Fold Uracil phosphoribosyltransferase.
Amino acid sequence: MAAVTHVIDHPLVQHKLTVLRKKSTSTSKFRGILREIALLLCYEVTRDLRLTSTRIETPLQPMDAPTLDGKKLCFVSVLRAGNGLLEGMLDLVPSARVGHVGLYRDPDTLEAVEYYFKVPSHLDEREVIVVDPMLATGHSAAAAVARLKEAGAVHIRFVCLLAAPEGIASFHEAHPDVPIYTAAIDDGLNEKAYIVPGLGDAGDRMFGTK
Ligand code: URA
């Protein structure tokens, strides 16, 4: 299966991403803009959802009007930074179910270690959209998706803000069936596996930790 990466090059997304990248952007502004970008990313990642037709009555006459059909949406946040994207996605699709996967990066091996996993039932019947702002080495994203597949998920998409070419390659080696949606593909990783030029540590920037 051909692995697909979509770069969301909408001008509003690109402008807001630049604000997030700036080191002078405050925590509260970072959080607000991230929420706005997430809503726009959600708009793009859901662009091909199936529609059906429902008979309704407008104040003037009956009509067959489009409504969403098919699988229900489930957003899965990769903790903790995924929560920053989750809020904006829920602004757009408030009825979506939500799961959380907690992973930390082992500082020596840089491998993902799971510490929390809670997802809605019947994952196989849902369109699962995994959110994590930074696709750096790709290890946590790949581990989160592997765990979701183990729990029954079949239809999965991955949404991030920034991706490194290394992260895309390793993620797609593990999961060629899962399309990636990102606002930008950066140059690469530095020696600490941070995306460069990047925006720093997304979790620290959104929560004001260091
Ligand atoms: N996680 C982050 O928050 N930032 C990076 O650059 C890489 C991983």
